């Protein structure tokens, strides 16, 4: 990808300039422009969807045997791996994550295409027991054109998680990446072309969500929206979907509790809690942003945690040693700062952070220090609202019943972490905590074969897992008279 040129976008298999406004993307570590592109226009949306429907009907992709579709998806996985360093650097420029993290995201994208290639080969059609003079069979059909709307925080992985199962199922997919991080999605579409995916099945439409995402969602030819992003946007999309009677899947926000019991392995727990909140600068839906520590351990644990937070290496995302990069934008950093101010005005006390790091290296980028706040109740806004930044709120707890009540007292229910050596307590708490994912003595660990999603305001449906492909298919019953 030549970043000096105005980037073409991918509309129904054709690479051309978008017809919307010209804008630049910026590297969050320096604020410098990375590339320029024209956003998609409403006319581009129409062309992408109509072209996707045509490709779905005429390319023969949906009719190809599963192992033939799988071969193309395996090739996509292979090309991602061959270009992994280039893609990781592109992703770093897109959203400023440290290179070590973006390499993992690229590896995850390759693994996702590989996994769903296999999943489409193993999709089972089931015959129900004979009831006498007929038998029935359940089969799965692709839906047609599906839309994938993704956020800026983990671009290539988010897009792969939607594109791979949608394509494996035989559909065409129109992707609306976040306006500010379009590069990884565009690179992925180039790879799809090169791997031999029929043209037109993939479109990439960067642009404003309220215009392009909204038009995609409302379009009658779009048969499903798979959305990852904020809860407010998710609810807006779900309302439109209700009118169309269109299925949606929603991966939304979180305010995930991490819990440290008295018997936890402390080295392990300190490292895990720090990683859970401060990796990706806390710009992660699963960030462990509410910490509950058993009271007898609280003072000692917090002292170690603060020492650990102060030792996190903030800096240039291109540096292999960097542990935390900048936030995505100046506006987002200001939003994080407002949350910290609000927490302090609610009665919170700063143990560390709460400021921009000093020094020439930090002047241009949107850096912020790892921040820990104590002294708030679980009902404080800072404990209830998603900050989406490197801000941890810590609370002591006295007994298990109160802990479970508080941990579950949230509109969100995406993830949780438990640190303990006692497997019976881990089991009991793991079952009692309401969340789509509970990590025990680990955090932010992912397996593509394990379903992922949230409860309540954290989402609807599950991505990943062998059955993740079924989201993109309609089930049909065939009856056979005997
Ligand atoms: P966002 O909701 O503002 O945007 C997400 C996507 O939706 C973007 O592509 C945006 O352009 C589009 N969009 C915005 N308004 C739209 C509309 N009216 N109609 C259709 N599309 C629209 O979220 P964000 O700020 O980009 O991302 C951060 C949020 O994403 C956080 O809340 C985070 O928790 C969540 N997230 C969730 C997961 C998960 O798997 N649960 C993963 C990553 C991020």
UniProtKB/TrEMBL annotation:
Gene3D superfamilies: Aldehyde Dehydrogenase, Chain A, domain 1, Aldehyde Dehydrogenase, Chain A, domain 2. CDD domains: ALDH_DhaS. It comes from the Bacteria. The active site is at residue 251. InterPro entries: Ald_DH/histidinol_DH, Ald_DH_C, Ald_DH_CS_CYS, Ald_DH_CS_GLU, Ald_DH_N, Aldehyde_DH_dom. Residues 18-477 form the Aldehyde dehydrogenase domain. Keywords: Oxidoreductase. The keyword Hydrolase does not apply. Belongs to the aldehyde dehydrogenase family. This is Aldehyde dehydrogenase. It comes from Stutzerimonas tarimensis.
